[in-house]
Amino acid sequence: MDKQRTPMFTHGTLGWKVRRLMLMLAALLALQLPCRAGELLTDYTRHVWHVQDGLVDQVVQALAQTPDRYLWIGTTKGLIRFDGRNFVPYTGAGAGALSHGVTALVVARDGTLYIGTEGGGLLHLHNGAMDEFGQEHGLTNSIVRSLLEDRTGRLWVGTDRGCFRGTAQGFERVLPEAAYPNLGVASIIEDRNGAVWIGGSKLLRLANGRMDNFVLPAQNGSMRIKALTEDEHGVVWVGTVSGLFRQTAKGSFEKVEGIKGTVRTFGHLPSGALWAGTVGEGVFVRSGAGFTQFKAPDVLPSNTVLSQTTDVEGNLWIGTQAGLLRSSRTGIHWAQLPQALDSDSGTLMRDTDGTLWVCSSHLFRMIHQQLVPYRFPALPEIGIRTLFRDRGGALWIGTAGRGAYRMAADGRVQHYTSEIGTNYIRGFLQARDGSVWIATDGGIGHYRNGHVDNYHELPAAPHGLVLSIAEGDEEQLWVGTLRGLMSFRHGDYEDAGLGDALRDEAIWSLHMDEDGALWIGTGSGLYRLKDHRLFHFQDVLGGPSRAVFQIMGRGDLLWVSGPTRAARYSRAALHALADRGGSEIPPHLLFPVSGEVSAAELYGGMQPAGLLDADGSAWYPSSVGPVHLVTTDKPLHTQIPLVIEQALVDGRSSDGAHTLTLQPGTRTLEIDYAPILLGSQMGIVFRQRLEGFEGWSTPTLAHAAVYTNLPAGRYIFHVQALSPDAAGPIAEATIEVVQLASFYQRPWFWVLCLTAALAAAFGMMRLRVHQIRMRLRAIASERNRMAREMHDTLLQGSIGISTLLEAVASPGTTETSRGQLMDCARQQIAELIGQTRDAMWNLRGHEYEQCDFGLCAETMLDQHVKPAGIEARYSYQGAPLSVDYRIAYELLMSIREALLNAVAHGKGTVVELNIRCEDADLAVEVNDNGIGFNPQRDNAQPSGHYGLQGMRERIHNIGGRMKLESAPGQGTQLRIVVPRATLEHRPNHDLEL
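Above: the chain's sequence. Below: its structure in token form.
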């Protein structure tokens, strides 16, 4: 063992002897430990999927990746497509044949997939269609074990009953069945010279039309061949039930010793190293002249390895009997920590001689990539929390409950307990003046010139955990506690000048830049304090927890770690962001440790919780051991496909490939998307927008966008994948969305509604105008009726009475006649009063009885004509007629008007009243032999006289007709005709009177 890798301390002669003894023991342990430096462990991180992780069937018999980057998985129950996140069983055409089990997969040069099944023959998946090949195509055996597309594009098919080769017509048997009746072909390969090797019950090589038969060395077990491969040197390797064989320089084959179990599959690491997967014995990786074995559960989910492939991203996929394994080059490596389940904390230290020390539940140091337990011989059995080597060569040892030990370069040991203030040590820091600050569970201590001072009793001194310390300027010490950040200067605690900022925050880590900027890691993220200005970086790790446990810097690089992730930033980019007050985190290199190393959790709270190597890589303590993060300038994620997997419209899958057409009334739209990324997807977030509806969303881990009650219109859905190590999006997908409008959302509907509204408004206006007109007409009609009543009652009665009184006053009238005329006048006055009362009563809506129309008309003739000394003639023809008083009233008032006009204006000697009651009509005629008049000239309405007009209105109101004939000197004839139907129905009491 190299002497430089021993701890740098001595303790006299006894100490040197013990040292040599420990070195010999460590070398002996290193020789006895198996070499696990194979590429599967040190250069790859693992991720395993089982049934509970979504893998439909965990017996993985075949693997292949198509040009669209999907990984196709052949299992004993069917075919599965994997995009790195979702397992989707194939259920399309030919799925029934796949249910027999998929045994072989090969991707043709045109990107299509050929599928060999165990009983379902050969299938060809292309452009969503599935072709099946069987006996009708020349493939006489349905159990397909292996597939090969040679360099000429011909397909070779190995079955349980021979080997077949594709032709333009179908398939042809390669070897005669009679000569090779039971040639079960399990593997077919093409070597670099174009020869085709066929392995099964025999090992055959076909080249240039010639067949060679190779005989493997005899073994006790079965010699049936299961796998063939050619290595980087052109050597053919043969995997059989009885082990592994390789081709010699002479062309024959020899047994490879040390390989146990049936060799089922071969693979090649990116370095070219060959590895063999076995049944029951795990994986054997070629290393130098021999092979190193890796088994479950440390490396594999199962010791039975059935298939393998390497994808375009460089990930190695291994199909086993109990799950699917992905080994990826992520730059994340770790060394297995013995007794990891007992570990609850951890710190690391790189010693000046290069030794890596790991403080956990026990103390370990790394030898040949393995962690070896170590115990300081000069110390008792103690729990060591942290180690620190100062610039003078002294080693400081912080313990859990036993204080601090200082081992000087000359081997002397000093032990400090009560003088520190508490015996639980959390970290050390060497100041510029060479003194050492000690962080503890109850405050800080200070070692200077062989003496330790503590400051636990000072005013405002912390009495809880001191999680971190950093040296400022002018003898200032920054102290990070569970309850905020404190400043210690010249032996006293002073206000940090931050106000309420960081109060009650856990200050997990402190890092001081050379330019005076203090970087602060807290439970809520990363802060920078510079020039008395505090800036908060919102989310530098992008994980579920924002806590920053450790901050480390070198040059322009700043490393930040939390419980599950670590990230490397450009310090200048962070400074620029803080100076301008931005919010968008700059590109950075992200290491999703917990996503790649199962159950790994990075530690913090004790120092140092990480270290930087000279090559720029970083180490962190974790729950599974020290994690090594190897940096690279190559981005973790480059341009990748991003596909829209499906769209759910109201919970039902839509068939839209390029355009989603949503029917009217659609309530919810869900668009599911995913990147086709078989490597780690940790750190990738997505943002989406619906162009025409909203802007870009906040980046999220969700793989779906949901919209509800979209307005009618045409939109473009955009989704972008973002990676922390890329300045722009690494993938984008779009799809058009068309939301059809309901009938009530279409323009014609609103035009129709507007037209209907205008029409309704116009109709209402017309109705209102009509109602106003009707009301005005009703008022005018009522005024006319009242005028008629006044004319036919008061005025006509007064005229009659006036005529009688003039007759009384006439000089030629006798006393007897005067008495009679006075009696008649008194009688007419009484009647006038009665008529006036009846007219007023009628205005109040009184119901009247029916009357004998003929009798009433005759009575009126006697009352108004005979007293004037004019002959009155009356005739009635037809059956007696009983008429409603309302109609009779209108007729009688008209008759009275005619009689009075004949008496007052006609100056005739005879007045006739003729009534004929016919079947259809009632006819009334009033005739006189007076002086007459000209109806056209006088317009039937002398100035100031309204009798004829009132008569017309009355007859019109009861549905009758009136005809007036007169001429000067020829008398007057008035004819009124009223239909019997009007007389026989009770009139409407709202009739215009």
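The CA atoms of residues 234 and 594 lie 40 Å apart.
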